[in-house]
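Office hours follow-up: a student asked to see two folded examples consecutively, so here they are.
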Amino acid sequence: MPTSPNPDPAGKVAASVSAASAALSSSASKAASAASTAADAPTSELLHTVASEVRSLVQSELTSARREITGKALRARPAMAKLGAAGALGAMAAGTSAAALIRALDRVLPRPASALATTVLLGGAAAALAAAGREDLRRIGSLVPEQTVQSVKADIAAVTEATSTSQDSRQRARPPRP
């Protein structure tokens, strides 16, 4: 049995996103532990470490967001095609490009009735396609990379917690000023 030449891109994207999320969580926890153990290091070294960790974290988050948006856009393509077809049929219903259908109905119906029947037929088809496309887009949801947003929130919380813990331990270690 031959294999499909085009594997499911949404499945690959989902796998990549979950792998990236795991890597980001690991990166955030490393950054948090580095921040808590770095109380003894010089300030310049701390700044260099923080800048490096932040750069790595931002790059990872951007890659994750790009993958998630690409996956959603791939799933939205059929819905966009339906909406495009609905627009084309709607233009036909509003214009005079349906003259051939009107003339065919003229043989059976009076002229005003054949024009009305043509408009109703094409308008109904446009409305059905628009409704199907809109429903497909609702199923897909927002194009906002929600997994990446949640991951960034978790990273910020981890760094904030590590920073507050580090500051608390430094304040306790310092003797009071006279």
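And the second, which I mentioned at the end of office hours:
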Amino acid sequence: MLSVNVFLRQNFPSRICRHERRLLVDLTIQTIQDKRLLRNKLGCFDKSDVKKRKKARSGKKKSPTKVKRSPEPALKNRLDAEFATAVISARTYVGNPSRLRALFDEAAKEAASMPRDPFGETWPYFQAMLRLIRAYSDGTYREVPESTLVVIIAATVYVVNPLDLIPDALPALGYLDDATVIALAVRRSRQALDDFMTWETTTL
């Protein structure tokens, strides 16, 4: 540390004028103040302190990324099992026009009160399924493979079944399983349904 003795007159060369001595004193005082400032603020230049701060920042735990969970497989398996049961039941309708007509009447009544939103773009195809069942039961249209007809009947049986996987009485959720079954049936019978709707336009 600099002593105050540095400011004594005898410590300055005699040849330095008064103005120069005053300037030298000012510079010396400024130097002392700068050294004190450096001593007090030494922490801001300490490399170890900077490393500690970086380590503290890097040590912060990042929020875990949310993992998207796939739909419960048990629900899908149960839906497949329910539809398989409907397919077995549907085979008994193929050769029985009266049962087919009764199924159409019941499904048409059910469809009149069903919301369309859960079905989306498959709703027109669902309506075509019902008309195809009616036409087949009346004998006016039979140009459909039996395996495809069974799929269409099975989907219709599932829709009218009051004991389906998700009860229709549940708001917003009750028709989701019905819509899923209809979508499955449409994928398996789209060409047959398109052919039937083309036939409808030519017979009107």
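Two things to take away from it. Residues 73-203 form one domain. The helical segments are 18-40, 47-58, 73-90, 97-112, 123-138, 146-160, 176-203.
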